[in-house]
Design a protein that fits this description.
single chain; 87 residues; alpha+beta; PH-domain like; 1 helix; 16% helix; globular
């Protein structure tokens, strides 16, 4: 089973999405979007840019945990919280 996107609506009516791995572990969380169409555009951006290794900026957080940011086509940083999973 491949990973899947899950869309949720929070208490204030904003949407966000998560990408979950086949084992159910969350590997990406998005910013919030005002509309369902906005969240769909965010998912399409991830699908388009995630296949290109050069779109990733790998970083180490203040608490020594690895994470990465995903860059869009115009190389602007997106507001996705991504996690590096070591298997």
């Amino acid at each position: 089973m491949a990973g899947k996107f899950e869309i949720r609506k929070n208490a204030s009516g904003a949407f966000h999405f998560s990408l979950k791995a086949a084992n159910g572990e969350r590997i990406l969380s998005s910013e919030t979007y005002e509309s369902r169409a906005g969240v769909q555009n965010g998912i399409e951006s991830v699908k388009k840019n995630a296949v290109d290794d050069s779109r990733y900026a790998r970083k180490n957080s203040a608490n020594a945990e690895w994470y990465f940011t995903l860059l869009s086509t115009n190389l602007a940083k997106t507001n996705f919280r991504c996690y590096i999973i070591f298997c």
